[in-house]
Amino acid sequence: MSVAVIGIGNLLRADDGVGAHVVRRLNEGWPDIYAVDLSTAEIGVLDHVRGREVVIIIDAILSGARPGSIHRLELGDVADEAFTRSHGLSLASSLQLGYRLYPEEMPEKIVILAVEAGDIESFSTDLTPEVEAAVPEIINEVLREVEAVGQPSDGLKKSGLEVQSAF
Amino acid sequence: MRTITIDPITRLEGHGKISIFLNDAGNVENAYLQIPELRGFERFCEGRRAEDMPIITPRICGVCPVAHHMASAKALDAAYGVEPTETAKKLRELMYMGYMIYDHILHFYFLGAPDFVVGPDAPASERNIFGVLKKVGLDVGKQVIKHRAYGQKITEILGGKATHPTCGLPGGISKGLNEEERREIEDMASSCVEFAQFSLQLFNDVVLGNKGYVDLILSDPYQLNTYNMGMVDEDNHVNFYDGDIRVTDQGGKEFDRFKAAEYLDHISEHVEPWTYSKFTYLNKLGWKGLIDGPDSGIYRVGPLGRLNAAEGMATPLADEEYRRMYETLGGRPVNSTLAFHWARLVELLYAAEHAFELSTDPEITSKDLRNPVGTPGEGVGVVEAARGTLYHHYKLDDEGLVKKVNLIVATTNNYADICMSIRDAAKGLIKGGEVNDGLLNMVEMGFRAYDPCFACSTHSLPGQMPMVVEVYDSQRGLVRRIER
Hints:
- The complex is a heterodimer.
- Chain A is 31% helix and 20% strand.
- Chain A contains five helices and five strands.
- In chain A, helix 1 (18-29) packs across helix 5.
- Chain A is globular and about 40 Å long.
- Chain B is an alpha+beta fold.
- Among the domains of chain B are: 3-36 and 423-483, no CATH class; 224-335, no CATH class.
- Chain B is 41% helix and 19% strand.
- Chain B has helices spanning 41-45, 53-56, 65-79, 86-118, 129-136, 138-159, 179-208, 211-218, 263-266, 303-309, 316-329, 340-359, 410-413, 415-427, 439-448; strands spanning 3-9, 16-22, 28-34, 168-169, 172-173, 227-232, 244-248, 254-258, 267-270, 279-282, 299-300, 378-385, 388-396, 402-408, 430-431, 434-435, 468-472, 478-483.
- In chain B, helix 4 (86-118) crosses helix 5 (129-136) and helix 14 runs antiparallel to helix 15.
- The radius of gyration of chain B is 22 Å and the shape is globular.
- Chain B starts with a strand and ends with a strand.
- In chain B, 57% of the residues are buried.
């Protein structure tokens, strides 16, 4: 039984970095949870989800909702992205490719926690107050998922992969 | 004047928009790719500690963090007046080969191959990695994933972290290599050499074996007769990590050559009112607008620019492939934008071979990792990023705090070329105001070859990537909209 938490987003662009912020706090407070900051969602995501049972992805979203709102999405909700991106594959396409190539190794469940961003334009390593206020709830969501699986630690946490932010 | 707008570029690597302007006869006059600049980033860096720069700058871009890390570390070497130890240079270079391996594999199989392996005329819904796998089989797909991960693993072993390396310090590197890690890298590099050869064979069979594709590569809309730029070693072989910056002309002869620190004497940036991004040009010729040819200071960088600006590859198998490419396409320089894909595979083979060489170098496990630094000053660091020449220039104060930052990223160097390639592809497909349905794909192919990266990207969901062409008449009324 194992869980992987993956943060997506640019740590330098204010709320776009919410995934990285959550991963950093998980690494500090719950070092037994495998949590990585991947910055850009591309095919490299497969290196972290193969062999996991549950994967939780944290990313920023711009949908017009109130900043700080947490959208709980499934792969199907973001799976209709176009395949021809300027670089590599989208998150959803990468995961779909994983299911195609390694069906026996892919997680049974993928949860996407998409946090409504307020500001993703400014160069800042701080979240806006609205998104900052949502961080504890995101962490609680993660902990609930981990608890539901029943075994938070799998001993596979690789040193050196976690975010060790300089900021 | 009519305006056609294509908005195909997702948020993932930044925002951009293609606008195609028609003249009164309904033919293409010009095309512009509008991209945002790194507004605010330089200011964000000012006042920070110099040694944080190699940690901060890789965060600009989700795609080439290793290139920024290395350019930054090299700029700090220069700013502190220190040469890294021989072992540190080799470790940095080995890490860099890992980055080139994974980046080039990703680009070829996920972005280049769909157009060629599946076919430029295939429906958009099939021109993707899934369509490629249908043609070449799932086992090849697993090899792609495996070797991409090997490249990533090499950078991770040396760089300390998977995506954002932390190892580069002024004067050297923070972490050495033990024998066990060295062996692991040797095995992975060796496997990558075979995979690169396989990839070139695939390109040979699928693309070069098809006359239609070769004709497409050599067709007029994809030719651009610019200067070429790339870093070379003392034998004028392609070098990603260090060397002189060499510019060759339309006849393949050396036109300019300079050291990193002299870059401002040789290239300048031009500003246009319709875009935040700047255009670079050669000082010797000046900015003459978006035109190619020997009188225009526009040059190309990236895999094709590098191969054109060099005279060979430093490893034997890649050098053989280099010569084969030029023999097949009619000699150096090759001006076909679509040849970027071939050049990329030649470089993949070089990166894998060179990674193998470095991993078996007797000095690579030495513990002599860092030389003492001097006093802080000014420094320029240049590397060849996967997409082209990358410049980092810092001025530090006496305390080692950052006073001024100037970055010229690969896509900026290629920006004028990308705009011209879009224009030329569109020209063939819009005549008398009639828009051919193949427009989107042909334009995309021209622009994808460069693998452009809009460095100040954000990465938020939902990441839809609609392809939209809007055709407006001279009154700016919408007359046609193509979408998928």
